Fold this protein.
Amino acid sequence: MIVRPGIALGLAGLEPWTIQSARRGVKLFAAPADQPRARRGTDVVLLAAALLGLGAAVVAYPPSAFERALQRFLSSIPSLFDPVWGFLSDLPWFWAILLVLVALAYRRLFVVGQALAALVLGALVGLVASRLAIGDWPHLSDAVFGTGQAPRFPSVRLGEATAVMLTVAPHFVRPVRALDRWILVLGVLGTAAAGSATPVGTLAAVLAGIVAAAAVRLAGGTSIGRPELADVAAALAELGVSATGLAVAEEQVAGVFHVRGADEHGAPLLVKVYGRDAYDTQFIARLWRSLWYRGATTRLGLSRLGAAEHEAFVTLLAASGGVATLEVVTAGATEDDDALLVLRGDAQPLGAGGDQVRGAWDALALLEAHRIGHGRIDPTTVVQVGGRVGLVDFADAVIAPGADGVAAARAQLLMTTAILVGPDAARSGAVDALGADEVAALLPYLQWAALGARLRRELKDAGVDVDLFRDETATALGIDAPEPVRLRRISWRAAIQIALLALATYAILSAAGGVDWGEFSSAVRNASPQWIVAGFVVAQLPRLTQALTTLGAVPAELPFAPVYTMQLATGYMNVALPSNLARMAVNIRFFQRQGLPAATAVAAGTIDSFAGTVVQAALLVVLLLFSESSLAIDVPFPSGGMRTLLWIVVALVVVAVLAVVAVGRVRRAIVDNVRRFWPDVRAALGALRSMKKLALLVFGSIGTEVLFAIALGLFARAFGVHISIAELLVINIGVSLLGTLVPVPGNIGVAEFGLAIGLVSAGMSDETALAAVLLYRISTFYLPPLWGFFALHWLQRNRYL
């Protein structure tokens, strides 16, 4: 942007870089060299997406029929255009070199360093992609310099230029960045048309460059791109606003540059500059909330100008509804494509009096009456304007929020007042403003997911525990603390389980790919029905021995029938949770209903589950040492794969221990919980001193494993294959322990895949092994939920759960 004369802001005291730029009337770099740098959320998204795309391109090699047809089409273009394609394929390199030379001339050594790092990393990523796709390392000089012998997947030379261009471009002004993108597009077209790389190889080169550029930018950061005060003054002049005394505001919001000043009458002004970082930051935040939380209504596609105009519109709407807020002066875009929102007024922090709390609730009530959802209430947005309590900063506001949005805004205000006046005063203020019933309805929304990032930080700094505040409020209202409403679309645990299920599905499909389904059908038709019936019967008996194990883990004397029914109910729960977790959850609730303290119930449930795992491991070791059985399962691990896996496990354990030791809050929480629950845990462990309890625990676990192994062996006999009990135990226990390490619900996929491999290693064909495993899993996992459903309802009806 050109700095015009006549602006009510002197240049004295500004950076020499700005003065020189103003005199020249041209600016190449978006910000001075000493401006702070930041890491952008968009780079994280780009890095993840580019890595996934590059992986897909590697998997898709060699070229498909469609890609080969596209290559033939490109090669049919008349040769008279060859010089054009050659020039366009070289253009990204020329442009990348030019950008680096300009940065060097302007002594932007950090930019030059980033460009060199991106060059090296881009070449490395391209070489690795070529090795994974083709199977051999390409010749280094041919790949790096793009000679005639360079690999056609990917074009490493294009990847290097892309990495340099995308790394350096964010430091330059917007016109340079736009030209950078066009040159990259032309370079991609030229590379594909010249035939120096396959079409997918050209795309892979660009993805490799994006990976390198995003990684370098995340490592070193890029300029935050804030305009200088002279630029802000020029932008205000464009919008017809006279401003004096411009200064950087103390309070800054991620992505939006705040500048304070005064108008011609001396009234305070707040200028919000929505630049490149504002769009990036807000887009990532909106995308995250839309994907992660239910009821997210903020639009993703808001541009910089759209974001400024949206905040201006909602601010005007709130002011017209009687809410005390700042006055909108103007909103618009500048020549440099920055969007400005200019507000007039003086907003002061909220005081700590009771009248202030009631005023805050009255302001929120006015917003609700006019169907406005603020979206981000915290101690910085609840302020005094003109002697009245009001609200400011409507950047995240929505019109006509849903019920979740209204409740979340109330929860945010309640926790904000808890910070300002303390939990007790905030609680009483909310009851006075809303009534006890409305506050009770609000309690399920008092959770982290309903609060903004700044409010969560303020709560931590103030030492206010949201969960404790919710429980204390419920106690004060004379009600039981309700469960938090589900605001997240998906939890981390669910996301991990979905990924594991996808991996298990892939493993099953891969294993099924080598099965002759004709022979499979023949094997099923020729199977012995007597052995199948016997297998189904024996497969139901382990619930009896599991009930004995449970009786041994509990310090109290319990009736056998309800405990056995609980084991049947566990079969129903296994559909939704990993088997050990399902059993533990049902056990703990069952024990609590039997009058055991919570800590004792947790300890007993843990002992029950842990004892089963220990017995499995001990049996496996004994069988491997003292029998002829072995784990000869042919799983295609890469060279050194098991050693690498072992080191990864060791590293994770070390990191977890260090985290507990280093993070005081985690360490104190663990120590406090251990001290609080240890007496009950010790009582649960003391019950194991009884030989009767210990025998039930150990022999019940052994009996369970033997019965499961016998059932698997009976299904194998149905197909004419006899497998020793020792081998069956090794196979079944090994797969079960593997399922403990991979927490897929019900071990779906893991069990089928592992058992099939184990039976094949024991002498069965692929087809008969798969048939036996399917029958075994149907009898032990897929059918028990039918009667487990009725068992669960019986337990609930009789108050056992």
In short: The chain has a mean pLDDT of 77. Residues 598-626 form the longest helix (29 residues).
